[in-house]
């Protein structure tokens, strides 16, 4: 259970601080929340916080202050303020995630960049003979597409092989995932292949499931996997993050998804080790060789302002009852409630039990929609946006081996909506989705005959 | 996107910008004569950028699916025309020249690792190449087995011929012992000291000497000197639009001449678009703020409100900076480090020898002192003296001129140095 954030050092340019976690009368009110997100497009049921996150008005204002300071006198900013600001953010993140030392925490643009950093390092290991051709990297079948491409670009290209572990979906318990992962890893290691790196999601993107990372990391260690990289893009602000407890070598999460930062800012935690010293940011600049965190703090002239508002974001979340832990709990409870409401309304089910949902839930869509491909899912998503003003990503669940498909659509749930809940959502957002889908079903619409 | 808001009713479509208004956010107390380092951005462009940022925040999914890519394409088309490239596929938009270098040099790495290049094959760079680029060469070329050859250039310099001569010697050195020169990395305008390099001639020499590939680092060039990529003839050319082209941080283009190799270039931050061509890869490298890349149309509107557009701006900046440099050199009894025709919108002005600038860190100390005590922002270059030089000029100020500068900025600098001179202050006395 993380403790509420102490109010550390931060810049003096933000709005007056409110009292934190003292009396209920000082908590942020519903109308204040509406104001903070008043820039969200009116009329849209925005139930996709998971893809691109969200940022409250007071943080945007704080960010603009930092941007202005750069524009006012960029040299002074560069020489006297930037590095301190980044260090302040890193320090706050270090305690947020229970890392041992601020040196272990680098700030980068996003999880995609973090993947490039870790995988480029793997590429060099192959090139410089530390790894042998054919040595393997493990990934989940549902790893984020960008990460898969990065594996192709840096591992496969350098001579590494890839073990793909299939996880079940729909899923019913952590045990299913643990069993499948153990099986998949063992199979992949057949023929004595050395496994150099495992990439494990903390929360998979599509379909969205909370993975029992601590147990999977342990299995990796037991099976002789050299290093483990947890892609936790969605995690911070969404589930509890304790990097020591999870025990991975590398752990990345985006602060602009569920932690109210503007785009874009992520942290990459690298457990102290000799290997961590050889990680480099791929955009090489003056600080090359001074450690990843220092390298990442200057990669040429850019707008670093989104990395500097972390102190302001902590102020913001501490205006809520229970701080970020309270926000997480209420988001989770609400999204499960809404997920169950939708499943009941459509006669479907959730893709995972509540305890495996973070602030997102996979809700089965009626089979009559006949979602039969990724393209269909995208078409449906577009249709919901354009004709019903609902923004929600749709997942196509391919048939498992041995499942009989063809024209038998009775009760077959082949599509899921990934609904999110963030502090700005209201019940009406989900009712809008419910009614939209009910309308499509009533009209006999299938993905085939979508306009 | 948004067009000019200042149409006057009688049919004329542009009014000259109100410079005071456009740069009102600049700290008024500072004589800001360092546009070269971090550039500058007018209010109307900042405002346009904020519109783009708001659009994203309002409905990011819609923006991602429907708006982002066509808007980046629009910016690329404008850049293609600005630099006289043939095809828009040749234009990728990246954060900055540092990123462009990583792209080109990472490709060199793969060429070494796949044995297309042999250990010991060389890359040639100017000694005055930007520090970050040199580090990138360490990280990607030296580490993969390549040899780095630096071309020492004279400074002060008097003519293009001096540069051409030194470069020729380095090419010879590079090819000694049957070595192959795989890459020449040439600055269009060096950073410190700042000199306009005769790139067209150097590129020609490289072609004659069978250098595989030529990468021109034109970080300062766009908005500062003319760029015609076909005329220059390099394989790769990069320039930052946030230095002299009024864009907010950060946006740069990387031009890659159409060739088989173009398909092999990749953005190091690999995302969904991997394999779809560098320009497409670069247009999505994960969730980020792409707004700086989207205001290029608004910047065109801005520059076209000036007499002569960007060409007029370049010409006047150049004339003014030379005029101010000569004024300062006269006031201090020093000289320009570079003749006017080799100055861009920046000039190197010798500082009085008695200031005692004896190291790079002395230069930094003096720069900080000028900032803190005299409110003058100007980078100082330390030049190591040659043997036998008598009371040499070892320090040069790199002064910039951009549309917001006034003659008062340079008088302030002149007077600051004169005061230091009169008070007998030397760098030895300045605190770290």
UniProtKB/TrEMBL annotation, chain A:
Positions of region (Disordered) = 1-23
Ubl conjugation: is it a keyword of this entry? no
Entry annotated with the keyword Zinc: no
Q: Spell out the InterPro entries in the cross-references.
A: Aminotrans_V_dom (IPR000192), PyrdxlP-dep_Trfase (IPR015424), PyrdxlP-dep_Trfase_major (IPR015421)
Q: Which GO terms describe its molecular function?
A: L-cysteine desulfhydrase activity
Start and end of every Aminotransferase class V domain? 87-273
Q: Which SUPFAM superfamilies match?
A: PLP-dependent transferases
Q: Which keywords does UniProt give here? A: Pyridoxal phosphate
GO BP: any one term: L-cysteine catabolic process to pyruvate
Stated name of the protein: DH200=94 genomic scaffold, scaffold_109
From TrEMBL, chain B:
The question of whether Hydrolase is a record keyword is answered with no
Keywords annotated in UniProt: Pyridoxal phosphate
Q: Which residues form the Aminotransferase class V domain?
A: 73-335
| Keyword set includes Plastid | no
Under InterPro entries, the record lists: Aminotrans_V_dom, PyrdxlP-dep_Trfase, PyrdxlP-dep_Trfase_major
User: SUPFAM superfamilies of this UniProt entry?
Assistant: PLP-dependent transferases
List the PANTHER family hit by this protein, alphabetically: HERCYNYLCYSTEINE SULFOXIDE LYASE (PTHR43092:SF2), L-CYSTEINE DESULFHYDRASE (PTHR43092)
Q: What is this protein called?
A: Probable L-cysteine desulfhydrase, chloroplastic
Per the UniProt entry, what species is this protein from, by scientific name? Answer: Coffea arabica
Q: What is the lineage of its organism?
A: Eukaryota, Viridiplantae, Streptophyta, Embryophyta, Tracheophyta
| Protein encoded by which gene | LOC113727880
């Amino acid at each position: 259970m993380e403790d509420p954030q102490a109010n550390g050092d931060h810049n003096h340019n933000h709005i007056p601080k409110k009292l934190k976690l003292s009396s209920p009368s000082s908590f942020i009110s519903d109308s204040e929340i509406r104001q903070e997100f008043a820039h969200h497009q009116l009329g849209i049921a925005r139930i996709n916080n998971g893809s691109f996150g969200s940022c409250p008005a007071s943080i945007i204002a704080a960010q603009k202050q930092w941007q202005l300071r750069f524009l006012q006198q960029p040299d002074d900013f560069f020489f006297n303020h930037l590095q301190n600001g980044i260090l302040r953010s890193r320090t706050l993140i270090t305690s947020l995630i229970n890392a041992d030392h601020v040196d272990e925490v680098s700030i980068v643009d996003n999880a995609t960049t973090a993947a490039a950093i870790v995988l480029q390092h793997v590429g060099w290991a192959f090139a410089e003979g530390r790894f042998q051709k054919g040595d393997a990297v493990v990934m989940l079948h549902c790893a984020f597409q960008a990460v898969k491409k990065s594996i192709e670009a840096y591992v496969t290209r350098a001579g590494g092989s890839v073990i793909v572990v299939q996880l079940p979906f729909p899923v019913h318990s952590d045990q299913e995932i643990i069993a499948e992962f153990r099986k998949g890893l063992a199979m992949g290691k057949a023929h004595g292949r050395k496994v150099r790196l495992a990439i494990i999601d903390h929360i998979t993107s599509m379909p969205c499931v909370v993975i029992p990372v601590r147990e999977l990391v342990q299995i990796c260690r037991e099976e002789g996997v050299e290093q483990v990289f947890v892609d936790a893009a969605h995690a911070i602000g969404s589930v509890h993050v304790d990097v020591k407890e999870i025990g991975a070598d590398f752990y990345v999460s985006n602060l602009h998804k569920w932690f109210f930062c503007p785009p874009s800012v992520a942290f990459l935690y690298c457990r102290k080790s000799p290997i961590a010293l050889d990680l480099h940011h791929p955009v090489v600049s003056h600080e090359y060789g001074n450690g990843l965190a220092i390298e990442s703090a200057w990669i040429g002239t850019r707008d670093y302002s989104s990395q500097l508002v972390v102190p302001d974001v902590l102020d913001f979340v501490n205006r809520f009852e229970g701080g970020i832990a309270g926000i997480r709990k209420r988001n989770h409870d609400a999204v499960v409630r809404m997920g169950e409401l939708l499943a009941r309304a459509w006669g479907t089910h959730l893709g995972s039990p509540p305890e495996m949902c973070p602030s997102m839930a996979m809700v089965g869509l009626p089979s009559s929609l006949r979602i039969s491909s990724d393209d269909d899912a995208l078409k449906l998503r577009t249709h919901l946006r354009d004709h019903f003003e609902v923004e929600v990503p749709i997942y196509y669940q391919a048939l498992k081996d041995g499942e009989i498909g063809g024209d038998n659509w009775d009760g077959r749930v082949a599509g899921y909506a990934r609904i999110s809940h963030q502090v700005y959502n209201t019940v009406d957002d989900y009712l809008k989705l419910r009614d939209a889908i009910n309308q499509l079903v009533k009209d006999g619409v299938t993905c085939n005959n979508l306009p | 996107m948004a067009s000019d808001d200042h149409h006057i009713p009688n049919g004329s479509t542009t009014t000259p910008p109100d410079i005071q208004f456009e740069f009102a956010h600049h700290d008024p107390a500072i004589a800001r004569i360092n546009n070269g380092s971090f550039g500058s951005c007018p209010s109307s462009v900042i405002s346009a950028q904020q519109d783009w940022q708001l659009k994203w925040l309002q409905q990011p999914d819609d923006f991602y699916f429907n708006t982002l890519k066509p808007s980046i394409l629009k910016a690329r088309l404008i850049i293609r025309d600005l630099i006289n490239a043939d095809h828009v596929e040749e234009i990728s938009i990246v954060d900055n020249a540092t990123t462009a270098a990583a792209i080109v040099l990472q490709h060199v790495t793969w060429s070494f690792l796949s044995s297309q290049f042999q250990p010991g094959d060389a890359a040639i760079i100017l000694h005055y190449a930007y520090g970050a680029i040199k580090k990138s060469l360490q990280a990607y070329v030296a580490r993969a087995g390549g040899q780095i050859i630096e071309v020492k250039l004279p400074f002060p310099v008097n003519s293009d011929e001096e540069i051409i001569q030194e470069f020729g010697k380095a090419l010879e050195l590079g090819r000694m012992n049957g070595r192959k020169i795989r890459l020449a990395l040439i600055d269009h305008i060096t950073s410190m000291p700042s000199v306009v390099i005769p790139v067209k001639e150097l590129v020609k020499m490289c072609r004659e000497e069978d250098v595989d590939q030529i990468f021109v680092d034109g970080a300062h060039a766009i908005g500062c000197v003319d760029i015609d990529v076909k005329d220059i003839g390099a394989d790769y050319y990069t320039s930052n639009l946030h230095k002299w082209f009024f864009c907010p941080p950060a946006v740069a283009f990387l031009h890659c001449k159409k060739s088989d190799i173009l398909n092999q270039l990749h953005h190091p931050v690999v995302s969904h678009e991997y394999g779809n061509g560098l320009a497409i890869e670069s247009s999505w490298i994960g969730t980020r703020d792409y707004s700086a890349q989207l205001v290029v149309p608004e910047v065109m509107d801005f520059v076209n409100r000036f007499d002569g557009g960007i060409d007029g701006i370049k010409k006047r900046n150049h004339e003014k900076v030379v005029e101010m440099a000569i004024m300062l050199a006269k006031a201090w009894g020093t000289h320009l480090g570079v003749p006017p025709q080799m100055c861009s919108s920046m000039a190197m002005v010798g500082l009085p020898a008695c200031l005692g600038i004896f190291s790079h860190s002395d230069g930094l100390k003096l720069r900080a002192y000028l900032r803190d005590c005299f409110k003058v922002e100007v980078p100082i270059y330390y030049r190591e003296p040659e043997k036998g030089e008598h009371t040499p000029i070892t320090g040069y100020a790199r002064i910039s001129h951009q549309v917001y500068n006034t003659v008062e900025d340079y008088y302030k600098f002149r007077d600051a140095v004169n005061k230091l001179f009169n008070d007998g202050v030397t760098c030895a006395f300045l605190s770290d």
